[in-house]
Each structure stands twice: as structure tokens, then as C-alpha cells.
Amino acid sequence: MSRCMSCEAISEGYDAATCKQRHEVLKAKVAFLTTSQPASFPDVLLFASDDGSADTAEPLVPVPAHKAVLVSRSPVFKAMLENEMEESQSSTIKIGDVSYDALLAFVNYLYTAEVWLDQQLAYYLLVMAEKYQVQHLKD
To answer: Closest Cα to residue 44, out of 77, 82, 84, 91?
Structure first.
């Protein structure tokens, strides 16, 4: 029997070091997610564009989000939405060179600090984390 160094839990076959690591990860998520919950209605739409071209045959599908969440998680979104930029006026943000799935996973991460990914998606999320200065995702 051993005792967890973080939560004091006692369990047979318990790896206390692993439990402590899990607690550290959870503490980092809580720190990352310490903003108040946004209103139910999204106030900004994000659009992904795989090739950056505006003349695609298919209409772009929006990813709805809340400005408060984007601003609190990313200094780049903060600068974009709090200043007199086109994005703050139109409440739409077009993100080129990213797939809809990658954008959806990125926005989901900004809300939950969790991500399920494969190797290709990991690459795109790392690029987006760098571009939008989301250090928690890069780590």
C-alpha cells in the first residue's frame, strides 16, 4: 500500500509519483481555464481555409466561439479583438492554411484544455499554438 503525495489517497499498487503528475496537469488546466464562463451565445465566428483561397466551390463552415474565451487564452486574439481591426468590427476571423478539423480542435482546446489528436493534427495544433501564442497548448 502507498499514499498519494498530492491527494493523500491510499491504494494498493498505487504509483504516487504518477498521481502527483496527474495533479500537476489538472492544476495547470485549472489555471488555464480560470475565466468566468461566457454567455450561451457565441459572438464571433471563425472560418478555416485549407488553401487560403477565397474562391472555393464549397461554402466555409463557421466555428462559433466567444470573444471572452479567445481573448483570455491568446494574446494574438486579444490584440485582434480589442483593437480597431477588421476582425473586431465584423466578428469574423478567417484563418488560412488550416483545416476545419484542426480549427475545431484548437477552439475546443481553448475551451477545455483537452485535445484528442493524431500525428497530423498535432502538427497543425502546434503551428496554431505558435501563431496565436497559446503557450499552454505548446507545452
So the answer is: 91
Within 13 Å of residue 98, how many CA atoms lie on the same side as its CB?
Answer: 29
Q: What cell was used for 91?
A: 466578428
Largest CA distance in the chain: 64
Residue closest to 30 by CA, chosen among 107, 106, 114, 131: 114
Taking the domains of the chain in order of start, what are their residue ranges?
2-32, 44-138
Dihedral pair phi/psi, residue 64, rounded to 5°: -75, 145
Q: Report the relative pairing of strands 2-3 and 10-11 from DSSP bridges.
A: antiparallel
Angle at 95 between CA 91 and CA 98, to 5 degrees: 145
CA–CA separation, 11 vs 8, rounded Å? 10
CATH topology of domain 44-138: Potassium Channel Kv1.1; Chain A (3.30.710)
Q: How do residues 36-72 score in pLDDT, each as one tens digit?
A: 555 567 789 999 986 544 444 566 889 999 998 999 9
Global confidence as pTM:
0.69
